[in-house]
Amino acid sequence: MTARHALAEAAARLAFSATARLDAELLMAHALGIERSVLLLDVHRETPPAFAALVERRVAHEPVAYITGNRGFWTIDLAVGPGVLVPRADSETLIEAAIAHFGVGAPATILDLGTGSGALLLAALDQWPEATGVGVDMAGAAIEIARGNAERLGMKNRARIVRGGWGGVGGLHDLILCNPPYIALDESLPEEVARYEPPCALFAGVDGLDDYRAIAPLLRAQLAPGGAAILEIGSTQAEAVTALLGTQGFAVTPRRDLGGRPRALVAT
Fold first, then answer.
1. Does residue 81 share a domain with residue 16?
2. Contact 201, 137 (CB under 8 A)
3. For 42-57, what is each residue's pLDDT tens digit?
4. FRET pair for 29, CA 20 to 30 Å: which of 90, 227, 242, 267?
């Protein structure tokens, strides 16, 4: 069967996904060992035997990024796998907010609290080549994956990945990035998220705000003068998290994602 026909059949089976055709193309490119852009230039090649097994994994709702082992984020490509959240395009809102805050300037030091795969930290370091940073996480799997990503991206000497919590590593940082757990315990999630992604990186108590309550009092002591702490939030949490940051003396500005939803809060 040609790749063209196999892609059509796979996309039909993956109709539960909002990106069924894209999912199929990414899996096909992975099976062929080529970039998706190369695949799209020639969809009449033979379908490799490995493709069918990859489709079956996706039919079981396994995230495409876990199947292929990688995910693009901002200007970088990251290795991902079980134990870290799959980086989402919505999280790029935090990088956009940081660029807007610093304008023509740049942060010298960056702290990423709950770094996971290292997505936010490494994207920021790619944006500002002179900066250095620290990624902090409590999960051993995340630390291993983030360190691997830093090395593959040539940032090993600029990105330090360490075990730790919301209190960070001491010292002051020009930019603090944080995508904490913010899902309420009774909130329903897509099957691919609920079944495969780490619960410790998703759920934050009955109302989804537990980690923000822990983070807010700790930020000021870690933030350099003129700097910004930028937190990702759920689409209905802007008012509640703004209030938590306000009690700590922060001025807060919301940023919206591509869908127009509140996605990040810039605290200064």
1. no
2. no
3. 999 999 999 999 999 9
4. 90
